[in-house]
Every structure is written in C-alpha cells, then in structure tokens.
Amino acid sequence: MTISTQQHPREATVVDAAPKQLLIGGTWRPATGERTFDVEDPSTGRALCSVADASPEDGLAALAAAADAQPRWATHPPRERGEILRRAFELIMQRHEDLALLMTLEMGKPLTESRAEVTYAAEFFRWFSEEAVRIGGDYAVAPNGTGRFLVMRQPVGPALLITPWNFPMAMGTRKIGPAIAAGCTSVIKPAHQTPLSMLALAGILQEAGLPDGVLNVVTSHSAGRLMEPMIRDGRARKLSFTGSTAVGRKLIEQSAEQVLKVSLELGGNAPFVVFDDADLDAAVDGAMLAKMRNIGEACTAANRFYVHADVVEEFSRRLAERMSRLRVGRGVTDDVQVGPLIDDTQLGKVTDLVDDAVRLGAEIVTGGSPRDGEGYFYQPTVLTGVPLAARLSREEIFGPVAPITAFTDEQAVIAQANNTEYGLVSYLYTRDVQRALRVAEALESGMVGLNQGIVSNPAAPFGGVKHSGLGREGGKLGIEEFLETKYVAVGGL
Ligand code: NAP
What we know:
Blueprint lengths: L1 E3 L6 H7 L4 E3 L2 E3 L6 E6 L4 E7 L3 H19 L3 H17 L1 H12 L3 H21 L6 E4 L6 E8 L3 E4 L7 H13 L3 E4 L5 H13 L7 E3 L5 H11 L4 E5 L2 H12 L4 E5 L4 E5 L5 H13 L9 E7 L3 H13 L2 E3 L14 H16 L3 E4 L14 E4 L16 E7 L2 H9 L6 E5 L3 H10 L4 E4 L18 E2 L12 E8 L3
Parallel strand pairs: 1-15, 8-9, 8-11, 9-10, 11-12, 13-14, 13-19, 14-18, 17-18, 19-20
Antiparallel strand pairs: 2-3, 4-5, 6-7, 7-22, 12-21, 16-17
Helix pairs in contact: 2-8, 3-5, 3-6, 3-7, 4-5, 4-7, 5-6, 10-11
The structure holds NADP nicotinamide-adenine-dinucleotide phosphate (NAP).
C-alpha cells in the first residue's frame, strides 16, 4: 500500500460554487432559524462547509411546492420534459471535472471514480430524456366484441426521493430522471454526509429550464424527523428510497398509512463465485472491480468470495498481490486508487468485522487494519479461510475487504451463496455455458454478473429481491415506478 496526501488547487473554488441552501418552489432559501450543519471531508475529518439543516416545516413547504407544481407538470409536453433532461445531461458533461472534484471532497472516492460516477449519473438523464416520449398506452377490443379497453399511463403524482452517500449523484439522477420524464414533481433529500453533489445537480436542472417546484431539495441532519411528516402527509403519492434495509423497513411502515407507491433499493451481500474452469485473469480483474469500486462502499460490492478449492490458492495470491499494490490516499489526485471510508462509524464497523473473522480463524493475506494518521482509511485487505460463522459472511462489509472461502460442490456453493436475507447481485465466473445458465437461474438475486465484475448500466433494470428491495431503477422499467395505469372501459361500440 502506498500513501498519497496531496492537495488539489481547485478545492476551495468548487466547494464555494456549490449551493448551500434549500431549493423550494424554485427559490434558494435558508432553513427555518438559519440552522445549518457541517459537511466533512472524510480524508481529513475536517469540515468543508456548512449547508442548510431543514426543519419538518421546511420539508412540508417543499412538499407543498411539489404538490402545487404537479398538475402543470403532468401536462407539460413529454418532448419538452425530455429536452430539459437532455440539456441537464449536456451541462453535467460540460462541468464534469468540477462535479467530480466536489464529489471526491465530500465522499472521499478517488477522482477517477468520481469522474466515472458523474458520467454514470448524467447517463440516467440521457436515458430518461429518451424514455419521456415513449410512455405508451393500449387499445383493445373487449373479448366479447362489445366495448373497447383504453389503457393510459399517467404520472403517479408528487414523489419523495431519499438517497444515500455512497453514490451522491447517480442515486439521485436514477430517481429524478424517471420522475421528470414521467411528469412527476418531487422533493429529494440527499444523505447528510454528501449533500453538495445533489445541490449542484439541482442548480444544473434549474439552468436546464426545469420549472419552479418540479424538483425541490431539502438537506438535513435529522432525516427521520424531516421525512416522516412528509411521508404521512397524504400529498405525496410515491416514495423512492435507496439506502439500508433497516431504514427501508421503517419507511415501508410509514408509507402504509397513505398507501404510497414504494420503490426501495436496499442493502446487499453479494457472493462472487469462481469455478475451477473460470478464466482466472478475468476473475481477478472482475474481483478487483466488484470489490474495490467505490472503496468497497457499494451495495453491489462483492461481499463473499467462494472460490473452487483447485484454484483458490492461485486466485487468493493474485488478488492479494493486486490489492497490496493499490495506492491509498486523499482522492483528489489522479494517482490515488483507494480513498477513505465515509466516516468514523464505518471505519469502526469494518475494523470490527475483520477482527471478528480473524478471531474465528481467518488468515490475513494482506492489509487487515486501519491506516494510521488523519482520515478514515482502511487498508485493502484479503482474508482466506474465512469461516461461515464470521459476521462478515452475513453482514454488508462496505469496505475494501475481500473474504475468501474455498468450495468443491456446485449445489453446496449455490446454497451458501443464497444463504442470506439479501438478494441484490451475484457474480459468477465459469467458461461452461450450461453451468453458467444453471447457476444464474438458481442464484437468488435481482442481478447476476456473468464473467463480469460490474452490472450497473442506466439502460438495464437495476434492483434486488428478498430484503434487497422492491422495484427496478433504470432500463425500460425505471419509468414504470413513476407511472400509474388507468383503464377506461369504452361503451357504445
Ligand atoms: P441509510 O442510513 O439507510 O441512509 C440512506 C438515506 O436515508 C440517507 O439520506 C439518510 O439520511 C436517510 N435516512 C436515514 N434514516 C432515515 C429515516 N428514519 N427516515 C427517512 N430517511 C432516513 O444508508 P446509508 O448508510 O446512507 O447508505 C448505505 C446503504 O445503502 C447500504 O446498505 C447500501 O447497500 C445501500 N445502497 C443500496 C443501493 C441499491 O441500489 N440497492 C445503492 C446504494 C446504496 P441521513 O444521511 O441524514 O442519515
């Protein structure tokens, strides 16, 4: 592990340029009582700036603005809705470098990864700009020949959108894009650790011509206190949440009162299965991607590696060698490959999970502890001989730790892979096409990476089964989450 601590010359400029207030009904304004909270740079633990801390009254004002704008927005021409998204896509790409640096400063991921996320985020706007004009309907003759069925698709209504810190922009555009395209207004609440990327994005949408009130942004340090009154209010008709399963469960309960249409993208515990006939070079490349994208802080991160006993030694050696060469540091320069974890709590959790596995008999091949000095850095780590009883076999690690367990039997490894409450994504490496399809069918997850360490793509349906969530984002299905179906029974024919 090499360490980098350099500064980027434009840091202060991009932080200063980002909005810091609430966006309600098209107006930037402070929170009630001018309350603010600090945004921290996780690579130093020091404050970058402060942003508005919305009260429950501010939240309800944002919801009122969204509800007020809803009828006009629902009838806004789809082509124009699409063109606003397309202009926002272009603006994001023009400001790519500044947005990437801002994201790195508040979230910690290396600049190269922030650039990739900014592009990924923008692509949701491009995709949904194209979907806005493809909201279809249906017309059919009733089976008995009398009467007709007319089926129309309409926006579900004002939406509440809640996003996590690990992909501060893309988790937002994945919801805002289809909401705008479908004709829904919304209130979005980004995570308290990473509000700046969302605030900058809202500014760009305004510049792209989004009418007042169509997107409202509330930042807060007290998410539950802010969101619950909005969820229970009755004016919102939709809740779309990305975050932990524990919070997702609470939100389902709160949404029950007003019977909101709910979509949830929750936690994961992805198995990464390497069979003995796999292309080992590809499997190690895929493992690096599936494990180390976003410092391991991804819902799609490979959490458990199951490698066939005949290749486990070779795979572990190669993976450890690649992991130990990674450059760890402040992500603001191009040479850094691994940034800090998001905060002290996450660093403590990763440390505890590794210590627990080692206590139960796992061996550290590389890494195995936090980095000394400021910031929340954990060394890229490979563990072998990880017992099934270890907590990290069951819990989301959300850090740069690869636990490896050997297997010999296909049925047994499928059972192990499925032995989790989660079901977001699984990874599978084999050159045998029958085995590939057989195992892909048997894995209990919403997505499978087949000989591929990354599945995310704005044009594909992203989402999980079991406790990993409800609904899909992206692809053709993404816009469905923001549409209702109305059936008109046509008589007299
Ligand atoms: P989190 O604690 O659940 O927070 C997610 C969002 O929910 C944040 O904006 C948070 O606000 C807000 N929140 C927290 N408590 C709330 C409450 N009682 N009512 C309303 N909102 C509340 O999750 P996280 O730690 O930020 O994110 C990591 C988790 O997200 C992981 O489990 C990861 O797997 C999951 N994730 C899933 C996907 C997917 O697509 N499936 C994608 C990315 C991440 P505050 O910041 O103010 O707490």
